[in-house]
Amino acid sequence: MTQKPKIMKRPYFYFFFGLIFTMLFIACEDTEKGPSPNENAELLSFSTCKTMKSYYATDSVQDNQSCIEFSFADSILLLTHVNAGFNCCPGNITADFVFDGNTITISEHEAAADCDCDCLYDLTMQMAGIAAGTYHFVFVEPYAGVTGQGIDFTLNLHDSVVGNYCVTRNFYPWGYGGKVLNVSDCKNMKSSLTAANQSCIEYLFADGLLQIDHLNAGFNCCPGDITADFIVNGNTITIYEHETVAECNCNCLYDIEMQIGNLQLGTYHLIFEEPYASQAGQEIELTINLNDSLSGSYCVQREFYPWGIFK
């Protein structure tokens, strides 16, 4: 006797059809989630404001560069963003990390912008659970991004586990850095160029660089390192001169050679804050108009120690 083929009951058919549809829907939903934050990525630390800090020409990263330095080991990728630009008073600096396949977007933020100036910082970040492979990095920064000069590069961790990637930025706050190029020895209160009771500023402007010589700057006889901080606020440039120690019971005079980069022709007001002259209320202030003259000098008389006591 021939058996009739069994026909699936309609309720079972609907059940299996609904199950398959539900599984497909969940799979599509997961696929469409797209980019997601990564809990294994974090901003470890950030430096204080570095802009206009004195540095010497041997520094590996110049002030008109912004660089990503990386090292990879044991599934951990360590990134340092050298010369990231933020406000001088940024509050807390944070970073968001979004992974979309092999594209990693890092958005940097500041909590506030309370000062009328910007400066440069170093940010250290870490990503854990990273497999060796090729990754595309996009850095979104509050000030560089709006200029269209963001950092965007591809990194192959099979080829290199240590290296860096840099971009050049010749706009504020990059490229305005000041350098202390040279400091003389103690001149024993004598100067072949300037009278001992004078402190003088000589300047020369060429190709966007302002060369400044401060003749007869006063410091301790044993000052350690003599450095300077350069703060640009509009067309006012304040130069803070420092000594790291004051180990001797005497002061003397020095010549300091400095340079400020990426300036345009225009009028600038220069203020020199010195450890001993400023205390006496005799700091040097001058206005220079580079449209009228590319070089010049300005002197002040000081009849107090260590100036003016040797005739």
Account of the 3D structure:
The structure is a single chain. This protein is mainly β. Helices cover about 5% and strands about 50% of the residues. The protein contains one helix and 19 strands. The strands form four sheets. Strands 1-5-6-8-9 form a five-stranded mixed beta sheet, with no helix packed on it. A five-stranded antiparallel beta sheet has the order 2-7-4-3-10, with no helix packed on it. β12 (about 200-205) and β13 form a beta hairpin. The longest helix is centred in the N-terminal third of the chain and has 22 residues, at about 10-30. The protein is elongated, with a radius of gyration of 30 Å.
Whole-Å distance between the termini? 136 Å
Q: What's the pLDDT, averaged over the residues? A: 84
Domain count: 2
Helical segment tally? Answer: 1
Rg value: 30 Å
> What share of residues is helical?
under 10%
Number of strands: 19
Low-confidence stretches: 27-33, 52-58
**Into which percentage range does the β-strand content fall?**
over 45%
Strand order of the largest sheet: 1-5-6-8-9
